[in-house]
Design goal:
With 251 residues, the protein is an alpha/beta fold. It is 46% helix and 15% strand. The chain has helices at 15-26, 42-50, 65-78, 102-130, 150-170, 188-197, 201-209, 220-231; strands spanning 6-10, 30-35, 55-59, 84-87, 133-138, 175-182, 242-245. A seven-stranded parallel beta sheet has the order 3-2-1-4-5-6-7, with helices on both faces. It is globular and about 50 Å long.
């Protein structure tokens, strides 16, 4: 069996997940590019392999335990035991509380929180067996509260508590757990938000940048750099932390 470390990055067909998958591959890891539909992962896998990295596409519904169990088994068979998990998969169902349906609430909590639970639970045995592991969870500045995102804010706040508990439970086995809380990142998701509120995306980005101390919006690679650090050997004494990657203070 190869000594190359294996990472699972969920929601990595595009956006932040794709950037993280590419960066970890560039760092020398074999990467399972996991998304709801394996066909959608083709571009990320192709980009990694074109640069000399190793990656496979894996389709799975992270909210479904059986689907995740099968996906992790596929990763073990084709790449080896995963010792790195980046829980990035997520969806938006934004609305004001009085307009938000139970299905909108449940869908967001299921993908973000139950998904992170399912994938981490399925992979943690391999980390414990190896005596080494890294869990990186994607939270958000919306964890602090954001109008029209009661479901998303609750899910992202939950990711922080989940992260800190993992750090406590798994630390003695050589496994760290940390969370990244992005601010405004230029992705299809933020573009969809701009469309929903009826603002051209360029204007939406410009307005956001004016409120950010570094005077620009983020890009997926900003998050990938942070994930790379958390996964690195040099971050072995960093665990249970939530890092806000938002260009400066929220207020």
């Amino acid at each position: 069996m190869s000594s190359q470390k294996v990472a699972i990055v969920t929601g990595s067909a595009r956006g932040i997940g794709a950037a993280v998958a590419k960066r970890l591959a560039a760092d020398g890891l074999a990467v399972a590019v996991l998304d709801l539909n394996a066909d959608n992962c083709a571009d990320t896998v192709a980009a990694i392999t074109a640069d000399g990295g190793k990656a496979i596409a894996v389709g799975a519904d992270v909210a479904d335990e059986a689907s995740v169990t099968a996906a992790v088994a596929k990763v073990v068979d084709e790449l080896g035991p995963p010792t790195v998990v980046v829980n990035n998969a997520g969806v938006l169902r934004d609305n004001l509380l009085f307009k938000m349906s139970v299905d909108d609430w449940d869908t967001v909590l299921a993908v973000h929180l139950r998904g992170a639970f399912n994938v981490t639970k399925a992979a943690q045995k391999h980390m414990v067996d190896a005596g080494w592991g890294r869990v990186v969870n994607l939270s958000s500045t919306s964890a602090l509260g954001n109008r029209g995102q009661a479901n998303y804010s609750a899910a992202k706040a939950g990711m922080q508590g989940f992260t800190k508990t993992l750090a406590i439970e798994l630390g003695k086995f050589g496994v760290t757990a940390n969370a990244i809380a992005p601010g405004f990142i230029e992705t299809e998701m933020t573009a969809a938000t701009a469309e929903r509120v009826g603002v051209p995306f360029e204007d939406f980005k410009k307005a956001a940048a004016s409120q950010i101390p570094v005077n620009r919006t983020g890009v997926p690679e900003d998050i990938a750099h942070t994930a790379s650090f958390f996964v690195s050997e040099g971050a072995g004494f960093v665990s249970g932390q939530v890092v806000y990657v938002a260009g400066g203070p929220k207020d």
